[in-house]
UniProtKB/TrEMBL annotation:
Superkingdom of the source species: Eukaryota
Biased composition annotated in UniProt, kind: Polar residues: 81-90
Gene source species: Mollisia scopiformis (Conifer needle endophyte fungus)
This protein's name: Uncharacterized protein
Positions of the UniProt region annotated as Disordered: 81-128
Amino acid sequence: MSEENESEREDDTPHLGSRIRYILIGIDYGTTFTSISYFTYFDGEAVTTIYPSDIATISNWPEDPMRGLNLHVPTEQWYSSIPINRSPTTGRIEPDPEVDGFSSSSEEENENEPSRLRRSPAPRPDQRLSQILDSSSADDDSSPDLLWGFQCPYQRYIAHTTRDYRRHVDRVKLMLLNTEHTKKGREELQPVFEDLIENQLVRNNGIQRPDLDCELVQDMITDYLAKIFQHTRQELIARGEYDNKSCVKFALTVPVMFSKISSLVLQWALGEAIRVTGFGTLTNRNVDNLFLVTEPKAAATFLLGSSKDLTAGATFVVCDCGGGTVDASTFSVARSQPLRLGEEVCPPAGDNCGASYLNENFRRLMLEKLRDEAEHFERNGNTIESLVDAQMPNFEDHLKRNRDIYKNPSARIYIPGLRGDKRQGREGQDAKGFDDNYVWLYQNDFHQIFFPLLDRVARVIQGQLEAAIALGKEVKHVFLTGGFGASLSLQSHLQKFLAKFAEEVGLSYEIDLVLPRHDQDYITAVSSGAVLLTRNPEDGIPRLAETTYGFLTKQLYEPDWVGHTNGKPVLCPLEACLMIEVIDNFLEQGDILDSKHKWKPLTRTHHFPVDDKTLLCEEVLYVSDTTSSSEYHLNHEQNKNAQPAGNFFVDFTKLRNQGKIRPKGAGRGQKGKGKARYEITYDLILLVDGRNLKIEVRYPSGQYGKIVKVAQICIAASFKPGTS
């Protein structure tokens, strides 16, 4: 659909007078599949509580083999060889003036309205990113279009595209999970990602972490979410539930194992996808009051709302089994009428033992079985890898989900051209289970594929049960959700495990494995639960900061101060002094913040040569997901995990031109006589408003300062998921 036609449809969508339609979007960005759920309402409606039946889910994904019935889409993308002409903007709070142009909005726009927050729908899609947003179905390397979702398996297995598979990207989320179990997957993905960066298809975003490869994935997540948002917008328009005045709010789910920096990367990618597509509202290039929640808690909220098996005071486990991660949490029921989720009984846990690893085990087993047939297939123009890959959709759609290996532990896999054991003279112990064109899989084969992962899922649940029982809780229900949760083999395995566990521990009650009532709930419980929690947030979660924030500032170099040790001071010719850059923290990890919180003013001073054409002050905000001491130089060990979180600019050129700022005479410093200069001193007033950090610039410094600039950044990822 062209942008013009889409715009026309938006304008034609019925709009109830001047009332604004609000759309709550829940995002379950999974390792292998993604789902989007939503709820809409108009301002002024007396909607206090919503229920699972009120939530809708996006469908009609391009190239959906189920003809529009799938309520999730593969988390895959496939790049062309033609680099994407990306926007050069760099700031996370506002554009970099060197590449986007800059004017001081505070004085130039309206002398009587000093610097308000820029609250408006995101702009129309960036034309420089039309390669990402173009919905063309062209598939080969002559097309610049990004393939995504169901387009990837369709082009690979059915349309047989000539596009180079080395540019196919999946399981991106693994790069944000630093666990032993993701190590192998991350090592496999890293050279693919580095090659994409080398060919300028994605960028290295400069996030330097020794424990994670965050810098490799932010563009990829943005590119994928941009496609998701474009389709979501079109679907909502087609359903008559979106117009160009709609206000879109987002709830993003994260694994329990996510670090704070991983959540931040996902948050930043989400904000950029909104900017690219125009779907959603940004304030100073940031998502406004983004809501984050863990995947198990979102699933628990959804399942609790549709359950008739629980009463107030009950304790239950939710196990969200996805394609990459399996997360489990234990909750209590706070009240009934309606049921309300209570506190987490014990710390959540998880493992990277999701359904995608079944695919890896199947592929590995098949390649091993066919290893000695490689010469035969290559002679006929095939490879065993391509033949096994062609059977992956069959394994994904049928054997993995619908085969119960306890009841039917055998299957045959179609391998065209395979010579059977009889034709090759193999009998008895030498037989490999080959028929002409088929490989037979038996009980031992299915055990190799399934059991290592089924056991690990059971151990995740076992840890939750043991922790809850140790606290004197009776856990009588384990709710299973997630795409992997629909596997008949996993369900049988867990039912046997729970019966054995109850017997071995000596429980006087049974533990029931509770399955969703509808098949679609396996894959929509997380995204739907996120919407429910956004509208009906929990009370009582401490607003505990789990990150540290500070501004980059220059200090007079003091070699005896521990924060300056081994730093690299720079001579400032204006002041004739050695200066060093440090991070001046204002928010420390572990601080408790009210929903409305205000700090003491931070005084900032900037110097400029008298012949500078502009007086443009830049403030750079840093974030760290570890505890760090304030006023340590940028490269100090204390700041090893500090990352730029955003920057903004304050232009005082007009005040200089009006004669309101005058040069300061040259003074003497450590290294002799300085130079005449402009000195600008102002205060930063920092305020927390919900899950946003608002920054006011007041000039001049002191009690008579007036607001000349306002900026805002989302700090949702800095709190515990679920914080309202």
